[in-house]
Amino acid sequence: MRWSPGPVAVLGLGYVGLPTALALCSAGQRVIGLDTDPHRLDAVRRGAVDLPDADRARLRALAAGPSFTLTGDPAAVAAAGSVVICVPTPVDDHLLPDPRALRAACASVVRHATAGQTIVLASTSYVGTTRELLLDPLADRGLGPASDVFVACAPERIDPGNADRPQAAVPRVVGGATPECGRRAAALLRPVAARVHVVGSPETAELTKLLENTFRAVNIALANEFATIAGHLGLDVTEVVDAAATKPYGFMPFRPGPGAGGHCIPCDPHYLLWQLRAARVPAPLVDTAMTALAARPPAVARRARDILAARGVPARGARVLVAGVAYKPGVADHRESSALRLIEDLLLAGADVAYTDPLIPELPVGGRLLHHRADPAERPWDLVVVHTVHPGQDLGWLEDCGPVLDATYRLQSPKGRYLV
């Protein structure tokens, strides 16, 4: 008898889970979308969520149909043939992993698991998570891999805000607890991925994802460092990177910026470092890169204060506007944005800080709630710090607003432009 993966329960309807659920629906699966946050469920029902245009259209088409149901009841997992866990794995204020949501989700899946299910962990975490939070607890319940349940790790590969690289165009790595576990997980995900690359274990898949985002973190830290070097030498780092990128082998261009934000780069490598520190295994290159990334927003804030001082404006009381606070262009999401630390440091220095970002209507930071300035040119600013530039955004007003600190390194030289 041919194995069928559905219906599929997707746990967590955030920036990974919701597009995954919609893609599975579009591939012909019946999907149970599960989220413990009633506000998130309501937002999904209303379509008030940040999605690419294609996924937004999918949501509208599926919202009233029978193939996509929403629930906050964890027991709904028992009715599924397959389960995909897509909950966030953030870090805390001390850059330590905070896997509470993941532990709770996995415990819930284990509690409601039934024989024959395929269970896939898509969240990024430390090596051994799939075994520790799924395989071992399932075995304690008498559900063994490949005999009763089929468990695999297939870390997500979603690039929010990038319409040129949709989930379906990206290959997926799958590591099963057994070959049959890998085969079933691959069959589940193959319709929603460009191709599936099967590896020999969940641990291999887990370390693969950590390598991907640690690679990016190290190279972003290097690009920022070269921006400092180029500035010291009186050179344009953008011109340098563009020139190096003409080499057709051995080089991949990374651009400097105000810091690394979002749910992956500033978080995922810390799951690796935390695990290695516990075992007293050194990783000095990764450690240094993550320290440098964490220090980048304060460095931008210091540069802003230095520019103000050079112009005879004390930081205390200075009118500073931050242009763009989303963690990356094209997303309506400020979580883990480097703009948060930048603004907090400027507030602590006594500056009068405001922001403009058409995708972020309000921003809680430093114990305050700031609101988007729809007309940033309505008042004079002592300094504008450009943090995020959204696609198609008109920044012509920068030409007449006074000094500009371009932390993106991508502006076309407005008057009074400074670099970090």
Walkthrough of the structure:
This protein is α/β, with parallel strands linked by helices. The protein has two domains: 8-200, 3-Layer(aba) Sandwich (Rossmann fold); 294-419, Rossmann fold, CATH 3.40.50.720. The chain is built from eleven helices and 15 strands. The chain has helices spanning 17-26, 38-46, 53-62, 100-112, 129-140, 179-189, 202-232, 237-244, 268-278, 284-310, 338-348, and strands at residues 8-11, 31-34, 68-71, 82-85, 118-121, 150-153, 172-176, 196-199, 319-323, 352-356, 362-365, 368-371, 383-386, 404-406, 417-419. The strands form three sheets. An eight-stranded mixed beta sheet has the order 3-2-1-4-5-6-7-8, sandwiched between helices. The relative contact order is 0.09. The model has no long low-confidence stretch (mean pLDDT 94).
- Number of separate structural domains: 2
Measured between the Cα atoms of the first and last residue, the distance is: 63 Å
Gross CATH architecture of the largest domain: 3-Layer(aba) Sandwich
Compressed to H and E, one letter per element, the order equals EHEHHEEHEHEEHEHHHHEHEEEEEE
What is the fold-level CATH name, i.e. the topology of the largest domain? Rossmann fold
What oligomeric state is this? Answer: single chain
Q: How many beta-strand elements?
A: 15
What's the arrangement of secondary structure elements?
Blueprint: E1 8-11, H1 17-26, E2 31-34, H2 38-46, H3 53-62, E3 68-71, E4 82-85, H4 100-112, E5 118-121, H5 129-140, E6 150-153, E7 172-176, H6 179-189, E8 196-199, H7 202-232, H8 237-244, H9 268-278, H10 284-310, E9 319-323, H11 338-348, E10 352-356, E11 362-365, E12 368-371, E13 383-386, E14 404-406, E15 417-419
Parallel strand pairs: 1-2, 1-4, 2-3, 4-5, 5-6, 7-8, 9-10, 9-13, 13-14, 14-15
Antiparallel strand pairs: 6-7, 11-12
